[in-house]
Automatic annotation (TrEMBL), chain A:
NCBIfam families reported in the protein's UniProt record: PRK05715.1-2 (NF004320)
Spans traversing the lipid bilayer: 6-25, 32-50, 62-83
PANTHER family: NADH-UBIQUINONE OXIDOREDUCTASE CHAIN 4L, NADH-UBIQUINONE OXIDOREDUCTASE SUBUNIT ND4L
Name of the gene encoding the protein in the UniProt record: nuoK
Keyword Lipid biosynthesis among record annotations: no
Single Gene Ontology BP annotation: ATP synthesis coupled electron transport
Protein name in UniProt: NADH-quinone oxidoreductase subunit K
Automatic annotation (TrEMBL), chain B:
Function of the protein: NDH-1 shuttles electrons from NADH, via FMN and iron-sulfur (Fe-S) centers, to quinones in the respiratory chain. Couples the redox reaction to proton translocation (for every two electrons transferred, four hydrogen ions are translocated across the cytoplasmic membrane), and thus conserves the redox energy in a proton gradient.
Classification via Gene3D superfamilies: NADH-ubiquinone/plastoquinone oxidoreductase chain 6, subunit NuoJ
Membrane topology: Multi-pass membrane protein
A GO molecular-function annotation: quinone binding
Family label: Belongs to the complex I subunit 6 family.
Residues of the signal peptide: none
Its EC number(s): 7.1.1.-
Keyword NAD in annotation: yes
Protein name as catalogued: NADH-quinone oxidoreductase subunit J
Matching InterPro entries: NADH_UbQ/plastoQ_OxRdtase_su6 (IPR001457), Nuo/plastoQ_OxRdtase_6_NuoJ (IPR042106)
Organism ancestry: Bacteria, Pseudomonadati, Bacteroidota, Cytophagia, Cytophagales
Transmembrane regions listed in the UniProt entry: 6-23, 30-51, 57-76, 97-116, 146-169
Subcellular location: Cell membrane
Pfam families linked to this entry: Oxidored_q3
Length: 102, 174
């Protein structure tokens, strides 16, 4: 196979930027969570692109495996918190939760 | 041939990621996120990480995305005045101003692009990557070098499971 590994890094950078834009742009709490998942995926892509050249120890792939585990735990906790926030404020639009400003 | 498949997967991934960014409907965004995660799994395969691609599909598409869709459904504010059973249910998100998002994300992308294009990564230049199955190596590494992180990850998952259940159910008793 003749794919240049640098291309994976560029795709990872683009995916990370799109995730960051989603986090900044969207006001829905779950959309922000989706942006964070995209950013974590971009990081995994980078780690795996480097790990391709390390077939003996596979440190990058194992690291991204642990990133995935932590991301799954994070998503579960975050959605539980969002559910509680929705029960308390009756909205999940982040800009409408401004109790401290009043 | 492989390069054509690679570019198709790149287009697929980045296109659906952009669709997540551009759509206003949260449910559509969740479905586009599904396509993005599948595209990333394809890229994992092309990078020689077969085990990671399968676990990407199982963890993200089978677990996290289902959780996210459940979250969207459960936090949907039903607008009783507007509800019409013939109309589709639009769960919309509002946008902040586009300027700051484009400025920050575009800035970070241009910095990363310059760094990646100029940088000379020693690891990426040393020899051809080998494409053998990684399952055996990952299993051996998890049981030897990464045993303690592996056990800690198990405990973390248990804690997250109990914590998520407790947090999500805690207001029922009131």
């Amino acid at each position: 196979m003749e794919i240049n590994s640098g291309l994976f890094l560029l795709v990872g950078a683009a995916l990370f930027s799109i995730g960051l834009a989603i986090v900044i742009l969207k006001r829905h709490a779950i959309m922000v969570l989706m942006g964070i998942e995209l950013m974590l995926n971009a990081v995994n892509l980078n780690l795996i692109a480097f790990s391709q050249h390390d077939p003996v120890r596979l440190q990058g792939q194992l690291f991204s495996l642990f990133v995935m585990i932590v991301a799954a735990a994070e998503a579960a906790i975050a959605l539980a918190i969002i559910l509680q926030v929705y029960r308390h404020f009756n909205t999940v639009q982040l800009d409408e939760m401004n109790e401290l400003k009043k | 041939m492989v390069q054509i498949v690679f570019y198709l997967f790149v287009l697929f991934t980045l296109g659906s990621a952009l669709a997540v960014l551009l759509t206003k409907n949260v449910l559509y965004a969740a479905f586009f996120l599904l396509l993005t995660l599948l595209g990333v799994a394809g890229l994992f395969v092309l990078a020689g990480a077969d085990f990671l691609a399968v676990s990407q599909i199982m963890i993200y598409v089978g677990g996290v995305l289902v959780l996210i869709i459940f979250g969207v459904m459960l936090t949907h504010k039903t607008d009783t005045a507007k509800t019409d059973y013939t109309e589709p249910n639009f769960i919309l998100t509002k946008h902040r101003s586009w300027l700051w998002a484009l400025l920050v994300a575009g800035g970070i992308f241009s910095v990363l692009y310059r760094a990646l294009v100029r940088g000379n990564f020693v690891l990426l230049n040393q020899g051809e990557p080998s494409y053998r199955s990684t399952v055996g190596t990952i299993g051996r590494q998890l049981m030897t070098e990464y045993l303690i992180p592996f056990e800690i990850a198990g405990v973390l998952l248990l804690v997250a499971l109990i914590g998520a259940t407790t947090i999500a159910a805690s207001s029922r008793t009131k």
